[in-house]
Design goal:
heterodimer; A: about 300 residues; about 75% helix; B: mainly alpha; MetI-like fold; about 0% strand
């Protein structure tokens, strides 16, 4: 009894000690511990599953450790769909980020250099794609993309007499990209526009005196002044386009065939009720996790080293 | 000559903006229009002069039990927001007001939680939920949504707290307030607007979430974003009913978004940009 008491005392003493040495921990500990519990443990569990041959509905006792077999299968190319997924995921990331940054930047420049009364309305319209539930927005796009009775083809037919099968194997990737552009160009625009508004006027005035051209102003004043902002916009677009799931899942379910089977969707196809290959799906999920972590860590490091 | 040139340029820019706005608003407008159309009219998009009907709304409320989905969404969003706001704001205070060696590393670790691909973590959540017997419950979704709302709250609230001058707190200490009193009576009222904005973003984040909601629930705990799967039937998609659900789901979010417009950039970038 006495022994237990002293032990307890000792423990509470050291904990107290810890808090007095780290006064911030009193505030941060509850949230940090919750996050550790809710995201680190599942991630570790995912890593364990990826080393097994577990299938949906199996009893855990039936599961065997196959160690790195799942990963070897992926990397050796005996799952060609995997490399296809990696390829289109990365391709999508590059295309979406580049196009959205460029278009958003241009739109923000136009918005910034034009003064008119209805500007608040334009900003409100820009918010619509960001607030609209992605799965529902994707479903609306699916209706609009419909080859027979979609409104887009109706316009195209009326104006140019052409008909595009938007969700065909050749076009599906681009259709997903169009929806992504619709959703996230406003995101970039709003961020860049706010950045443009916050740049002081003086550098432009002295540049004007020195006779700088519009391009020089853009390249030597505007972009350097907004480095951090642009960087963060790129970071968010890169990661979110790698994670892409909702839009493609609703729009194409990864099809037709595997034309739009991005990594997230590949995970889904392995793990869904028909295949149920949870072990293999987990290994793909780990690959996705690694890609996302490496890219985000690299970008964050790059940004922090500049500060 | 030069003035005319300038005017032409401005007109050109306005035309460009109008076109962009049309493109952006088209899916939203089309959703509202489809939700008011009869089944036949939906397959004839060119016909703009139709007699509007509220039949779709009546159907989803009476036959599809859509109100239950809304109930789930509301409960999950509110509970998640409260939990995240309490834990997150406390932590944000620690990050904003104390300086310790690894503070920025920890802060970026928190930010990195935002980058976890949901499709990767949904697998362990599914299995752990199955073992714990809480699959298809609101509780499980609350747990999942807290994982991305706590880091979000920390980054958002840290910014808001850092914007308060420390002198305000000091003055309170000098007047004899304890730490807890200071937080409750001085800081809380001052950061209240920021907290409300953060709360609204938490609600929007949870309201729109799809991956966890779709794969971790089957009957009882389904939320509004997953209802789109319900309208796929053998006889094709029930577009009208789907659009009606969409309108009901998107309108409250849009109203919320307009309220927090001032903090939009902060909310969109996880609090890492203070617009």
């Amino acid at each position: 009894m006495g022994k237990v008491l002293t032990q307890n005392n000792k423990r509470s003493f050291s904990l107290k000690n810890y808090f007095s040495r780290n006064p911030h921990a009193k505030f941060t500990a509850p949230a940090m511990l919750t996050m550790l519990l809710l995201s680190v443990i599942p991630t570790l569990f995912l890593a364990v599953i990826s080393l097994t041959d577990y299938q949906l509905g199996w009893d855990f006792s039936r599961t065997k450790f196959v160690w790195f077999e799942n990963f070897i299968r992926l990397l050796s190319g005996s799952d060609p769909d995997f490399w296809h997924s990696v390829f289109i995921s990365v391709g999508f990331m590059v295309a979406a980020t580049t196009l959205e940054m460029a278009m958003g930047f241009i739109l923000a420049l136009v918005l910034n250099s034009t003064e008119f009364k209805l500007k608040p309305l334009v900003i409100s319209i820009l918010i619509i794609p960001l607030a609209m539930t992605p799965s529902i927005a994707a479903q609306m796009w699916k209706l609009m993309f419909n080859a027979e009775y979609g409104i887009i083809n109706y316009f195209l037919q009326a104006l140019f007499h052409i008909k595009v099968v938007w969700l065909s194997p050749e076009m599906a990737f681009w259709s997903v990209l169009i929806v992504d552009i619709w959703q996230f160009v406003p995101f970039v625009t709003i961020i860049v526009y706010a950045g443009l508004r916050s740049i002081p006027q003086e550098p432009y005035e002295s540049a004007a005196i020195d006779g700088a051209s519009w391009w020089q102003e853009l390249w030597y004043i505007t972009i350097p002044m907004m480095r951090k902002l642009l960087f963060l916009a790129i970071l968010f677009r890169v990661i979110d386009s790698l994670k892409l799931f909702d839009t493609a899942f609703i729009l194409t379910q990864g099809g037709p065939g595997n034309a739009t089977e991005f990594l997230s969707l590949h995970v889904f196809r392995m793990a869904n009720a028909q295949n149920g290959l949870i072990g293999r799906a987990a290994s793909i999920a780990i690959v996705l996790l690694v890609i996302v972590s490496v890219v985000s860590m690299y970008l964050i490091k790059l940004q922090r080293s500049e500060e | 000559m030069k003035i005319r040139h300038k005017k032409a340029k401005k007109t050109l820019r306005l035309v460009f903006l109008v076109l962009v706005c049309c493109f952006i608003i088209l899916p939203f407008l089309w959703m509202i229009m489809v939700s008011l159309r009869n089944r036949v009219d939906i397959f004839n998009p060119g016909n703009l002069f139709i007699t509007p009907t509220i039949k779709n709304y009546v159907t989803i409320i009476e036959n599809n039990n859509i109100l239950k989905y809304f109930m789930n969404s509301i409960i999950i969003a509110v509970v998640t927001t409260i939990v995240s706001l309490v834990l997150g704001s406390l932590a944000a205070y620690g990050f904003a007001r104390y300086d310790w060696a690894k503070r920025e590393d920890r802060a970026f670790w928190v930010l990195s939680q935002r980058f976890l691909p949901p499709m990767a973590v949904v697998i362990p959540y599914f299995l752990m939920g199955a073992v714990a017997g809480i699959l298809d419950t609101r509780l499980l979704l609350v747990i999942c949504y807290t994982t991305f709302n706590i880091p979000f709250t920390i980054w958002m609230m840290r910014g808001f707290i850092e914007e308060l001058p420390f002198e305000v707190e000091e003055a309170a200490y000098i007047d004899g307030c304890t730490k807890l009193q200071t937080i409750r009576k001085i800081i809380l009222p001052l950061v209240a607007p920021g907290m409300i904005a953060t709360a609204i973003f938490c609600v929007i984040n949870s309201w729109n979430e799809f991956v966890f909601a779709n794969f971790l629930t089957s009957i009882y705990a389904k939320t509004v974003p997953t209802s789109v799967m319900m309208y796929l039937s053998v006889s094709g998609v029930k577009w009208g009913e789907m659009a009606a659900t969409g309108v009901m789901s998107v309108l409250p979010v849009l109203i919320f978004a307009v309220i927090v417009q001032k903090n939009m950039i902060r909310g969109l970038t996880f609090g890492s940009v203070k617009g």
